[in-house]
UniProtKB/TrEMBL annotation:
<dbReference type="GO" id="GO:0036297">
    <property type="term" value="P:interstrand cross-link repair"/>
</dbReference>
<dbReference type="InterPro" id="IPR039685">
    <property type="entry name" value="FANCE"/>
</dbReference>
<dbReference type="Pfam" id="PF11510">
    <property type="entry name" value="FA_FANCE"/>
</dbReference>
<dbReference type="InterPro" id="IPR021025">
    <property type="entry name" value="Fanconi_anaemia_gr_E_prot_C"/>
</dbReference>
<feature type="domain" description="Fanconi Anaemia group E protein C-terminal">
    <location>
        <begin position="9"/>
        <end position="192"/>
    </location>
</feature>
<dbReference type="GO" id="GO:0043240">
    <property type="term" value="C:Fanconi anaemia nuclear complex"/>
</dbReference>
<protein>
    <submittedName>
        <fullName>FANCE protein</fullName>
    </submittedName>
</protein>
Amino acid sequence: LSLMSHPLCHPQLEGLCSFLQLSTCPEPFLVRFCSWLLALTPDLSYTSAAILAEQLFLRRVLSLTQPPSRHLMGALSSFCSKYSHPFCRVLVAAVLQEPGEGAEQTKLMCELVEECLEPHSVQLVLSQVLEVPLSEKLLPVLQAVLGRQEVLPPELLDLLVLTLCQQAPAFATSLSFAKLVTAVLTVYQSQVS
């Protein structure tokens, strides 16, 4: 395991993850492993953290049919507290591309946005959501982002407002969409005309 504190090429790290069976290891071990990862010096590279996010969490998150266990939630929270950018690039992107309702995945994303992610990663989540067609599934995620009341770069706020304006006819009867628009107008009232 000490190899992970040294630079590894992608196939080596993926091979090590496969050897350790990280994608299927018991969740209590996952928590301990993430604690060990966070203590590594130097920090993992972006690419290594992205590979580990995929190996440790992707299959588990995409297969959720009920709320995550406290072990899985603890591991997710600890990992994304330090490596939130690669975590979002891997996990959030995969959840957004997953067809269907994905209710548990959406709830998990909302919880991570509300409680775990750094402001720059909250902005990343917002930009990722705005890159895909808006759906009822994604409205709670946008609501969670707005609930953070982060200062958004003007171009990202403009994209959010433009997306909401363009999508308004498709969500004419959606209470969630109406709440979302109200939240945008409330949180960013000085910037939205």
